[in-house]
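Justification of computing resources. Each target in the renewal requires a structure prediction run like the one illustrated here; the chain below, 86 residues long, is used simply to show the kind of job we budget for.
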Amino acid sequence: MSVLDSFSHFRKILSKQVNMAESVGMSDDSLTKITNRLADFLADNVEPRNKEEELLGEMWQVASEDEQMVLSKLILRLIEKSDKKH
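Resulting structure tokens:
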């Protein structure tokens, strides 16, 4: 299964990587920047497979750099919230 085949699978992998980065002392700012770079890559190189991904991609493309950073922070918050549930 590709990392991008399922959002749930993607979220689990991202969560594991975020937890590892935090355990070695990576700052929230650094994590946000890495998430931002990953989102840039996905927006530029991966075709959306459904309406939700298409909407996210369109939002990313029209967002300013500051707005993209906010979206990156929200993605990280979603991952952290998901971790607390499990």
